[in-house]
Amino acid sequence: MSAPAAPALWRLLPAGSYAGRARMMMVRSATASRRTWLAFVSGFFEPLFYLLAMGTGLGSLVGDLPGPDGQPISYAAFIAPGLLAASAMNGAVFDSTYNVFFKLHYARLYDSMLATPLGPVDVALGEIGWALLRGGLYATAFLSVMAGFGLIESPWALLALPAALLVAFAFAAIGMAATSFMRSWQDFDLVTLAVLPMFLFSTTFYPLSVYPRWLQIVVECLPLYHAVELMRGLTTGVVGAGLLGHLAYFVVMVVVGVVIAARRLDRLLLR
Amino acid sequence: MAAPTVSVARSTGRAPTALGGVGRVVEHHWRWYRRNWRATAVSSILQPLLFLLAFGVGFGALVGSGPQAAAATGGTPYLVWLAPALLAMSAAQSAAFDSTYPILSGFKWQRIYLAMSAGPITGAQVGLGVLTWTGVKMFGSGAVYVVVIAIFGGVQGPGIVVSLLAALLTGLAVASLITAFAATVENEGNAFSALFRFVVIPMTLFSGTFFPVDRLPEWVQPVVWVSPLWHGTEVARGAALGTWRLLPTLGHLAVLVGLLVVGSVLVARLFTRRLAR
Amino acid sequence: MSDALVQARGLRKSFGAVEAVRGIDVDVAPGEVFGFLGPNGAGKSSTMRMIACVSPRSAGTLSVLGMDPGVDGPRIRARIGVVPQLDNLDAELSVRENLEIYGRYFGLPRRHVKEKAAELLEFAQLTERAGDTVEELSGGMKRRLTIARSLVNDPELLLLDEPTTGLDPQARHLLWDRLYRLKREGVTQIVTTHYMDEAEQLCDRLVVMDGGVIAAEGSPAELIGRYSTREVLELRFDPEHRPTAEALERHAERVEELPDRFLLYTVDGERTHGDVVGAGFVPLSSLVRRSSLEDVFLRLTGRTLVD
């Protein structure tokens, strides 16, 4: 959350539901994940396997592709930023939907936390914070791998890390807001229904020019499209004012998501 | 206050035959499925459809009939080349999903396997019944998927029916091995995420579904050979495109049947052991 | 009672059209163990959730530790301990971590929490199981851990919602002993229960709740004295030769007819038994016992507590 937005945002949140101790929730998650370190570590490998397989295999069918500025880049360099964006989305969505739903309705974990001074906003921020911390570690590792494979063309790529965090924050906030409306596991079909097409069609694997114009417009509305464009601009060093537009998209998502999530959690947890 | 009367029939004392026991377990799942089929429709039918659109149509349009693509597919359009492999991949994927969390739930959360084996049905029958049901469902969604492929122009000839059977065999081999593994899992912590990330995802990516495996670096090749999905993909694609040769095909089938037999024996044993304690 | 730790006046809670709590007045004094007694659905848990500041009230006034839960929720929750009806321990953490992390939610320093956890493990007789995951514990151990967890912030007020439901007799007695110790240390406790013996064991004072209202209030002995007789004679008859309640009524002060037996309220159970047999009614079995809160509840509501 950017500093100037914070006070305004604050007034939109329910009073008395924030004790300023979201950090303790993150301590809890860190402690818990020590026992499931393998699952933790495995999260990094998913995009890496995609990069290895698709970059070399599919790349052999395609050859080079035009980059954001029209200059040809290798297929691996084309999909790597896409995979970085997609993995930021996938991780954030998984953490904020399945995990939160389970803790909310099955483990009743949040009920126990609300018996302490923690409020719903601590819970929401703590969970999102942990998702970001984890996502940040994965993104750092993935960017290092990209650098190792020579897929990074510009120092602007360093900004891909904070960009990945913002993208993850936006998806986590929206995901948590959506979870607060879900009644049963059956509703999670809808999550798959939203995430999988985005992963496949948001120019992760091939450029927008493949589509007819009307489909291009649809894709341009999807959040992951903006994330992919943002990352691709940064890692290839094609940086312009257009990137700010992509950024704005995610700032709006964050604000909307956090406000809805906090209000809904308040109502769900404090009945 | 008059107590309601309950008529009590004497127990028959009959136990079902081995096949009958498996049948009852399948029936249980079928009855559940009739009420809840919508939930699985997304994962079993929409998911492969989306992959078909994204790669077969979208990526296919990108590579077009360029020389690199033609060299890889032997001149066949990319969509037609990809479709039978996606059939096998989606069978393997849904096998993996159906054989992880639902199995743990049957033992631990909903405990339906315990309820089943409290009656005259044995642990082995429960395990094999679950596996059979996974196969039935896989065949059903595979058949629907074949129709979808045909609509998008991905079917070349009747060989796709053989591809469907090959996909079913592949899915069953995968399901039997993962079901056996799931029967040993006590809690969800590490096991399934690690299985998906380190086994299932590499399997789907490195089995020649989207591109020929010879495009991969030398050192990945051993991974390819042990992947049941690669064997299944070779058979399914060979059948659909009419490019198969006898000996290699028999070899692939032998591997898949062998894995299925080993997996089924393990399922029967591990279910028996877990339900008997 | 201006020094009451909890004071409610006309307290109400509704969920849509359903009114769970329909205007209750409650005062809980420092140091006492106060009970809410009633069947499932009487409104006990809703009341407890309002006192615990996790459920906004629909009407009336409520003050906890002198503060308003609607305004000072987090500050109140910092000073109370809660034992919910269903254990909600953190299954992803070990026994010890459950205590330590929970203490951290209160903002307690890490060193303090560490010492406190060791002390509470001892209190709950779980020191040997400190490294286990929660899943490996028995039901009684989990309950003890939940209670230990509720004490991590040295609460002035402890809320226990059905503390021993689902436990075997041995585990219950161990828990009662722990709660008694806390009482002696001066921890005020509010307990809900649908077990009469538990209420009699634990509570200094209690209210009987039914249908969202308070039906009676007093100490267990007062309530029994006010609403029941000294003794109760329980009679079971062969269903074929079961007398009517009217026929038995002239032998006792009051008769309750239950599906499987009659309860005859009387000062002297043995003598009443003689009278009934003398009148030609021969029961299959009979039992004379002291009146309990169960009888108070039956008298007040016309229903038994545990169906």
From TrEMBL, chain A:
Membrane disposition: Multi-pass membrane protein
Positions of the ABC transmembrane type-2 domain: 38-268
Keywords: Antibiotic resistance, Cell membrane, Membrane, Transmembrane, Transmembrane helix, Transport
Compartments reported by the entry: Cell membrane; Membrane
GO cellular component terms given for this protein: ATP-binding cassette (ABC) transporter complex
Residue ranges of the TM segments: 36-53, 73-94, 135-152, 158-178, 190-208, 238-262
Predominant subcellular localization, coarse grouping: membrane
BP-aspect Gene Ontology terms: response to antibiotic
Gene Ontology molecular function, alphabetical: ABC-type transporter activity
UniProt similarity note: Belongs to the ABC-2 integral membrane protein family.
Protein's name according to its UniProt entry: Transport permease protein
Organism: Pseudonocardia sulfidoxydans NBRC 16205
TrEMBL record, chain B:
Example GO biological process: response to antibiotic
Keywords (A to Z) from UniProt: Antibiotic resistance, Cell membrane, Membrane, Transmembrane, Transmembrane helix, Transport
Keyword flag Phosphoprotein: no
This protein's name: Transport permease protein
Tree of life domain: Bacteria
Family: Belongs to the ABC-2 integral membrane protein family.
Family matches, as InterPro entries: ABC2_TM, ABC2_TM_bact-type, ABC_2_transport, Nod_factor_ABC_transporter
UniProtKB/TrEMBL annotation, chain C:
Gene3D superfamilies: P-loop containing nucleotide triphosphate hydrolases
Gene Ontology biological-process annotations: response to antibiotic
Keywords, comma-separated and alphabetical: Antibiotic resistance, ATP-binding, Cell membrane, Membrane, Nucleotide-binding, Translocase, Transport
GO molecular function: ATP binding; ATP hydrolysis activity
Domain named ABC transporter: residues: 6-236
InterPro entries, per database record: AAA+_ATPase, ABC_transporter-like_ATP-bd, ABC_transporter-like_CS, ABC_transporter_ATP-binding, P-loop_NTPase
Pfam families attached to this UniProt entry: ABC_tran (PF00005)
TM stretches of this protein: none
Gene Ontology CC: plasma membrane
Main location: membrane
Membrane topology annotation: Peripheral membrane protein
Subcellular location: Cell membrane
SMART domains: AAA
Keyword Transport found: yes
Family statement: Belongs to the ABC transporter superfamily.
Identification of the protein by name: ABC transporter
Organism: Pseudonocardia sulfidoxydans NBRC 16205
